[in-house]
């Protein structure tokens, strides 16, 4: 159809033809009508002072995490509309984007920033009124196919998920993706001629949509709309709003075409998108060697990370560095990247833990392995799951960065990743109550609870996750007490039996004490229940008592973890 358009003698309307857009005749002589902002959305915008503070709050909370626009152009357009209090038809999408950006900034105000707001400004009242205006005029964005409208719908979907309106979040996210596809945002080849800034903004927006669609599919157990094979968009290059370097570092990043450039704030999104692209290659029915290969690819990605994106390099004693806002943003990026990597690795390996007869189901992928070799593989997987979950718990070593993260939109994602690690720790503990790592697991659960409390105890997901993990600790303690009492009773009965049957005791005299203890320990471990006949309602047969204790209705996010599918395939 592009070739067809190029050879049309006159502009004509083809909006009813698939894959074509209307081609209205342009007229430069007609004046562009403008409208009062208050008449369009039913409310006036806040003052320039308030809007500037809320925008700054948004940039600190979100811009480093998911870049949706070019900040200088956005700021200039915002002040232009506030000063005139008027917009034209083509600015309706931007007006809604501006509103949701200001709402997001108001939701994530830290105490220091809030002090600069005028005393008469009521943040909560503004959020309520602005959200009502947005929802009443949502179709303004749908009728305005533009980059601003796509960014608005995307940010609105994330807001709905944070507000526990998941159904609305999924619907609006689908709208943003379909509008992006309608504008060929997924295929750079079909973009019209444009300047470099607009091209980079389009790339930023598309990759933000892709990563969020993939994460949402993983976290909520839904199939993603997008896959790696149905888009072709280059990674965004640096613009000056996210081109800052990290103080104290001077590493290089390999970009597309093998070019080497300094690591900047936008490097975070490029590395994160590579991680999502890696995991998207997997599938739920992968053979064991495929899982091992993908696990190796993930580890290679981790090794290639520059020092600026490794959390262990932050929380310095250098006060100059600690006072640097850019340094602190890099620290938050490094921490969220570590949590995301751990979550991807857990998602890759945890399905093997969930299956009832794990190695019977994957035996075709491991050749003619002996039972002992299968047990070794099982132990290796459990060790990797344990080490990765413990790595999540050790993020408590970075309290300053966690406190900074509390005022960002990354809180919910990191909170869910902590919850996932905590539940897997609980499953590993319940699998073997005689494990020497049991005490370490319980301490790790306590550390994860502390992390959740630091980053967002008042947010719904983090608050409920604290309740879930606290109940898991109680369950482990309850089951451990039963196991210890039963083991003590068994030893007592055996001792009484040895006293009353001396002949049997003499027959055992050739067996060393250590060997008898090992035999008894093996028998004790065998008596620890590791599966439940019939499985649980959510399909997890290993620990139905865990689900029964916590209750799917009381803690709905548990069912999302039971159904966690890192390799759900979309259309």
UniProtKB/TrEMBL annotation:
Keyword field: Nucleus
Residues annotated as domain Xylanolytic transcriptional activator regulatory: 169-242
Stretches the record annotates as Disordered: 518-537
CDD domains: fungal_TF_MHR
Biased composition (Polar residues): 521-535
Organism: Penicillium citrinum
Cited SMART domains: Fungal_trans
InterPro entries assigned to the protein according to its UniProt record, in alphabetical order: AtrR-like (IPR050987), XnlR_reg_dom (IPR007219)
An MF annotation (GO) of this entry: DNA-binding transcription factor activity
UniProt GO BP: DNA-templated transcription
Protein name listed in UniProt: Xylanolytic transcriptional activator regulatory domain-containing protein
Residue spans crossing the bilayer: none
